[in-house]
């Protein structure tokens, strides 16, 4: 289902040319255009339609910020091309804790990217097909699962499948903006379906008006989300990586500004009225039952006509590019997870590539987290965006601050560089100023966003981020302590002596015989078979079989009056240890290897429990003798048969001196 | 949190005296009184208030059925006292498949017992504290989790904690019924708060009237749920088990009939009007926002006065007895699961008693299933009861049919019995008639219930039961096939020869040194250490450490150009096998033992992946050398230190001939 396993050498072949990197990384910031103008205008309209006259100024502020951030990240890509992005910059320049704050912010961010993009995508699908409205949450969850499945297949295949929608989105929205502006120019301005409805206005004090403007600006800043994606993905670019990444970033920035500005303008021209609560649209009777269509859908319907082919193309492209944006997070989250695991801040399991060279665990965790949030917040876009922006601006600010520190250090103690990579003092100063302005502006926005969004749901992010922070710090401390604990020091000495083998025997079955055979082959100094008697009847039968099979290894019966598998054995081991000193006792146990995941539910439970308890006894090691059930053939192409030794039947048997005699009862051969 | 582990010998001490068995097992059927009259009357009122005049007759039919079922089960307990209940009876008399149908029905049933009882319990809590209405589902889930936690502690403790509520419920409801009837007798009949509202009546055809009566009867039959609980719990009684169980059953039956009849009568007298949709109560304005209070709450408020102490006592006792009823299922489900596991129809993990002698896996599965259903159906009692009754009557009918078969066989070929257990032909004939009538009546009710409830949600049960049935049959077939596969036959022969040990070495750390030490102690014919080189730098360091530690075992470096841990090793093992024939290769790997569940997330992942792949190679066994991290001290009271051998430091070392030389670098001792 997720494709054949790929050998590691394919990794280089998975790298991205620019024309594929743009859709992969730029889809996130570009897709923001689908919701940023809508959220910006929606907040303004809380104050009434009169406030829309301020919209161009708010939008302009967002554009200025966007330019600053793009220019700042151009610097960051050059200075830190290893793909660590803001995390690496903050970690290296501001210390471990700042790095972890960024990491926590980014982790939250990636999850929110998936959640917001999918919620907005579904919103746009519903705008085209309102009859799907009751299945909003279900649709969103299905899309997350689909994205996870696609991403478990691998980067390159998913990028090819997803290259077209971004270009289609850019192209079709551009055509729409140009068409709409031309129509307005010739005096036939498009009119949105919601233009007829007035909006309930709240009465606002002067202070509240300022706050409303700030809130509107903060919501508009959702247009900046995803700009940092490219800085995290530099290693995925083809060489020259830095130059290609920088060019892609600039192309992306220019496109995003044009689309954002154009769409906001067109929405204002066509008088789209969009309310947080649809029933605040005065005059709309079906507000409780009908879904409010997204701003982009209303603009498209006004420009091209409702339910025309162009309308559906715009909606399809928007939905697809939003899903592609969610896909960005599926690229970034597992990568960040593996970087954190490598640095010891996350479980090492996150740095293990799966059969398809993907950090599968990261993909699964991301999908799960996104699904939970979508269900809890019922895929409500406006609420989700409140959670989104905080994380974004935390990492922006710390990343930029780290860059300022970086350039300051370059000024005082510049690194030695080769030929054309050398930077003049002037160049460093210019870079410093750029990042300083960037840090200042993003910090200001962070403060604005925090103040205006905190009570609207953003507090959840302020709970989650410290939790993640503490968890990562804890994991790091733990790995460090273990590392110290197992480090070899001068006092480490050796000397386990004595060698005894025990084969655990339940019933007379092939896996047990195989374990016995292997134990004998390993030529231990002494060997015995041990049976824990839970049932007299079964024990009697085993003894009979033992004789019948002509096994010369001594069978020791341990009685267990309380039907406990391990207690009598542990007692016996302790007695042996008291008698023989620190000998090593090797306990042989069969282990079933199965072909299907569900078979694992039906096997090995008791064996695992026994094993876990035995491993706690001094001087014990457990030897697992695999027994491949026939079903394992499905998975591994190997069967348990032929039995060990069977493949050599008829070969002359070399005599082995110390070896006890074990063979099947003699049978006349024909 | 769930108490200290209990030794197995305590099992007998956990058995129940009658005065504790009654609350444990009778709480389920008795608590049905809390919802059965309500559901019976509610369905009748769909046809309008006039239909209430038929209520006594419908209630009478339910009582007659209840008597029949109690008498039938009295027989069953005597004939099959092993606690298998309907499952055992159907399995032994009607064959494997009938047994599995009953098992599937019972499993669904136990889950529904928890769900319905908890939902009804929460409903009664909300009737006392209407402000809790918004948290209906959350409350229900919390109660399920609490019950699971209590049951993970063990039977006896939970029964003591829960003995009082059942007696309190019987006593307080009896007082209420007597008070209410006396008041009616002296002409001061209580009047329910809903008596003032009329009920919207549907226009019914003659056929619909008959169907409505049948539906009302079917809903009233929910009073019978749980009667079978005692027959499944006979082994939990003190000796004489059969007699004690039978007496408890009869006491329970009589009490249930009195409470059911009394409460129905009182509800009719006080004119409780209860509607499926609260807004069908004509005249009640707050129907959309206020919760409709349960029938028992309305009767209590009418009899004793609203918000009096007596009212709260009734509500508290009702809620508690319902939770206790849910507890019944927490006793029964895991027990049935273990019986099914013993017979090979369920994963063997269900038959493993946990540290507190409880089948913990069963408790957890039940709690999870109950929570899911409560969330999906939003703890809506009326819908849930539709799902409940089907399963109950499937097992009733098949159990009784099995008993008929049993008595028929007794007639034709009677079993030999000792003295007073011998049954006369007349006694057998009488028993046969009782169970035949029981089978006939429960089968009729099953048909009625199926017809009347199918479209009201019961179809879900008809989907679930076959799925469970097929799963159980599949599990059984699977275990049987595996059993055949591993059975020792005449062709089983042996002869693995050759003995080579490989110690996997990553970095120079104590766990690796311990593994090396144990491997040397086991005196293999040949031994080598193998390092998979993923990183030249690390390999170089290891080589240096190897010399520094003065280890005389050969260190083989396998290069892994593609950073794969297992592939080079597997290749090497295959080459060895091609060269040395079917030798046994023992691979030593350190295994971390940790003290907290969360530590398991941080360890052993890579080792497990490597182990799983190595176990697929011909002739390989894997030896796990445990390394107890310091944290394991928390759990097991044992530390990884002192190192193997350290506890004997200074002892004279016995010279061992074949053993390679390994020791720490010589240090001057002071």
Protein model, in words:
Chains A, B: It comes from Agromyces atrinae. Chains A, B: One of its GO terms (cellular component) is membrane. Chains A, B: It is a multi-pass membrane protein. The structure is a homodimer of 670-residue chains. The first copy, chain A, has 670 residues and is of the alpha/beta class. Chain A folds into two domains: 413 residues, Amino acid/polyamine transporter I (Up-down Bundle), CATH 1.20.1740.10; 150 residues, Rossmann fold (3-Layer(aba) Sandwich), CATH 3.40.50. Chain A has 21 helices and seven strands. In chain A, the strands form two sheets. Chain A has a five-stranded parallel β-sheet with strand order 5-4-3-6-7, with helices on both faces. In chain A, strands 1-2 form a two-stranded antiparallel sheet. In chain A, helix 1 packs across helix 12, helix 5 packs across helix 6 and helix 7 crosses helix 12. Chain A is elongated, with a radius of gyration of 33 Å. The interface between A and B is large, with 92 and 92 residues. Strand 7 of chain A pairs antiparallel with strand 7 of chain B, so a sheet runs across the interface.
């Amino acid at each position: 289902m997720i494709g054949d396993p790929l050998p590691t050498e394919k990794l280089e072949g998975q790298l991205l040319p620019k024309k594929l990197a743009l859709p992969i990384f730029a889809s996130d910031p570009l897709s923001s255009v689908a919701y940023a103008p809508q959220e910006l205008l929606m907040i303004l309209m809380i104050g009434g339609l009169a406030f829309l006259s301020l919209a161009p100024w708010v939008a302009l502020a967002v554009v200025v910020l966007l330019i600053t951030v793009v220019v700042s990240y151009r610097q960051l890509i050059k200075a830190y091309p290893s793909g660590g992005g803001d995390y690496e910059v903050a970690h290296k320049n501001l210390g471990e804790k700042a790095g972890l704050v960024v990491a926590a912010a980014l982790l939250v961010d990636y999850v929110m990217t998936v959640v917001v993009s999918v919620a907005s995508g579904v919103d746009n699908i519903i705008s085209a097909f309102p009859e799907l409205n009751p299945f909003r949450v279900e649709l969103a969850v299905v899309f997350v699962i689909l994205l996870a499945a696609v991403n478990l297949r691998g980067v390159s295949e998913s990028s090819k499948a997803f290259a077209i929608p971004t270009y289609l989105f850019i192209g079709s929205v551009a055509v729409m903006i140009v068409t709409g502006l031309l129509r307005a120019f010739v005096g036939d301005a498009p009119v949105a379906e919601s233009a007829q409805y007035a909006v309930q206005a709240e009465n606002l004090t002067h202070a509240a008006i300022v706050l409303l403007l700030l809130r509107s600006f903060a919501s508009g800043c959702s247009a900046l989300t995803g700009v940092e994606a490219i800085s995290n993905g530099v290693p995925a670019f083809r060489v020259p990586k830095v130059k290609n990444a920088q060019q892609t970033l600039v192309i992306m920035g220019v496109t995003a500004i044009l689309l954002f500005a154009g769409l906001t303008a067109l929405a204002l021209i066509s008088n789209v009225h969009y309310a947080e609560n649809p029933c605040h649209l005065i005059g709309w009777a079906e507000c409780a039952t009908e879904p409010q269509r997204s701003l982009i859908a209303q603009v498209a319907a006004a420009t091209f006509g409702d339910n025309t082919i162009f309308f559906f193309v715009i909606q399809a492209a928007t939905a697809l590019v939003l899903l592609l944006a969610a896909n960005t997070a599926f690229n970034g989250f597992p990568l960040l997870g593996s970087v954190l695991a490598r640095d010891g801040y996350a479980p090492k399991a996150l740095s293990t590539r799966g059969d398809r060279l993907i950090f599968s665990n990261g993909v699964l965790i991301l999908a799960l987290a996104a699904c939970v949030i979508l269900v809890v917040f019922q895929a409500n876009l406006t609420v989700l965006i409140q959670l989104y922006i905080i994380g974004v601006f935390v990492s922006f600010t710390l990343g930029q601050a780290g860059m300022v520190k970086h350039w300051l250090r370059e000024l005082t103690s510049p690194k030695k560089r080769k030929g054309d990579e050398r930077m003049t003092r002037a160049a460093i100063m210019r870079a410093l100023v750029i990042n300083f302005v960037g840090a200042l502006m993003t910090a200001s926005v962070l403060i604005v966003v925090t103040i205006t969004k905190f009570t609207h749901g953003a507090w959840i992010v302020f709970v989650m981020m410290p939790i993640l922070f503490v968890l990562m710090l804890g994991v790091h401390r733990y790995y460090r302590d273990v590392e110290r604990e197992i480090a070899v020091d001068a006092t480490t000495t050796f000397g386990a002596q004595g060698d005894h083998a025990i084969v655990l025997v339940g019933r007379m079955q092939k896996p047990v015989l195989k374990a016995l055979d292997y134990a004998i082959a390993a030529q231990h100094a002494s060997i015995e078979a041990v049976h824990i008697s839970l049932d007299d009847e079964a024990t009697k039968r085993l003894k009979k079989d033992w004789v019948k099979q002509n096994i010369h290894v001594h069978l020791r019966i341990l009685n267990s009056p309380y039907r406990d598998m391990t207690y009598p054995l542990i007692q016996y081991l302790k007695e042996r240890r008291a008698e023989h000193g620190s000998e090593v006792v090797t306990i042989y146990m069969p282990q079933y290897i199965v072909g299907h995941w569900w078979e694992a539910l039906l096997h090995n439970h008791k064996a695992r429990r026994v094993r876990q308890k035995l491993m706690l006894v001094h001087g014990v090691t457990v030897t697992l003798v695999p027994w491949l059930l026939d079903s394992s053939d499905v998975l591994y192409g190997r069967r348990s048969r032929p039995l060990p030794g069977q493949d050599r039947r008829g070969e002359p048997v070399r005599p082995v001196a110390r070896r006890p005699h074990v063979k099947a009862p003699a049978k006349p051969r024909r």
